[in-house]
């Protein structure tokens, strides 16, 4: 009678490696780090009594003596929206070296943006933002219970660098303008964040 064949025994290191590999795959499937959202924090917008959930590194920047407007970004880019000399070129350099530092939200009370027609509103917005181009109005929406006109646009920093703008004009006795901004070459990646911040705005 032929002797029974012995069962093959896998080396211990092969078994341990297989277990670790399976565990790593399961962890990735459950954790999904590629789907994780940026860390957010609730901040007072300092305009209209509103608050919103914004990326943690979007600090509030306000200029002394200038009421009713705030920039939320990693760096103070208020000068872009105030037309201050030199700010646009500084932002253009930063957009190339560290584009995420030139992403954020500008919010301001704009009593003079009082046109009832969205087309005229767009013209008023363009006149209020230096070096900007504003597209025809998009869909009407609602933010924090207020009727809101939407626009897209751009702001020329230098001949070779442009900020893309996503604008919301909240209508009312004192209109509130929100401008999300990002360098053109990274703008698309930030659209989900801009949307999430917008829907989080509340009284």
What is this structure, in a nutshell?
Helices cover 30% and strands 30% of the residues.
- Within the CATH hierarchy, at the fold level, what is the topology? Protein Transport Mog1p, Chain A
| Percentage of residues in strands | 25-35%
Q: Could you estimate the helical fraction of the residues in percent?
A: 25-40%
Count of runs of 4 or more consecutive helical residues: 5
Number of domain units: 1
> What's the CATH architecture name?
3-Layer(aba) Sandwich
Secondary structure tally: strands: 10
Oligomer: single chain
- Give the termini distance in whole angstroms: 88 Å
Note the overall shape: elongated
CATH superfamily: Mog1/PsbP, alpha/beta/alpha sandwich
Q: What characterizes the major β-sheet?
A: 8 strands, antiparallel
Text of the CATH class: Alpha Beta
Question: Could you explain the architecture of this structure?
Answer:
This protein has 203 residues and is α+β, with helices and mostly antiparallel strands. It has a single domain, classed as Mog1/PsbP, alpha/beta/alpha sandwich (Protein Transport Mog1p, Chain A, 3-Layer(aba) Sandwich). 30% of the residues lie in helices and 30% in strands. The chain has helices spanning 12-31, 78-82, 87-97, 118-128, 187-200, and strands at 40-44, 51-55, 59-61, 69-73, 104-109, 132-134, 141-143, 146-158, 161-170, 176-183. Strands 3, 4, 5, 6, 7, 8, 9 and 10 form an eight-stranded antiparallel sheet that branches. A hairpin with a 5-residue loop joins strand 9 and strand 10. The longest helix has 20 residues, at 12-31. The radius of gyration is 25 Å and the shape is elongated. Residues 32-36 have low confidence and may be disordered.
